[in-house]
Amino acid sequence: MIVRDAADDDRDAVFELANALALERPVDCSAFEVQYAAARADERTELLVAVDGPVVGYLLGVISPMFVYNGGFAFVQELCVAADVRRRGVGAALMAEFEARAYSRGAGATALATSRAGAFYEALGYTGGATYFKKWLARA
Q1: What predicted TM-score, i.e. pTM, was given to this entire model?
Q2: Plot region of 53 (φ>0 → left; ψ -120 to 50 → alpha; else → beta)
Q3: Residue 12: which region, alpha, beta or left (left: phi > 0; alpha: psi -120 to 50)?
Q4: Starting at the edge strand that comes first in sequence, how are the strands of the sheet with 2-5 ordered?
């Protein structure tokens, strides 16, 4: 298995995984297309895929400035591993690559918000903390 930057050819596989991750709403295909291109083009965004033959997982994260961590701040926005390959190190490999990239870019911390897989993140050294708030924004 290798972890690498997502390519244009990975779009369909990432779309399928993103739909598996989405709990509240299905992923809109046209919105995904726009956001996939934006993620690949944005210098603060890391869009990684794990490939073991096919794409078996992805991580979408952002590394941005933040004052209180004495460096940048890395935030994992999405992590999804195909159900048939979970517990085989795919998620850990994606997280390790993201953390390494964040560290090399001066990040002082990394975090994520999730209601699932708490034991997985704790095994990687993450601890619980803030409460996550969300508000859906209406599209005109």
Answers
A1: 0.90
A2: left
A3: alpha
A4: 2-5, 45-51, 55-66, 71-81, 107-112
At 107, which helix (H) or strand (E)? strand 107-112
pLDDT at 17: 97
Residue 84 or residue 119, greater confidence? 84
Q: Tokens in use for 79? A: 């992590």
Segment 21-62, tens digit of pLDDT: 998 889 999 999 999 999 999 999 999 999 999 999 999 999
Torsion, CA 31, CA 34, CA 37, CA 40, rounded to 10: -60
CATH C-level class of 2-123: alpha beta
Residue with tokens 């190190």: 89
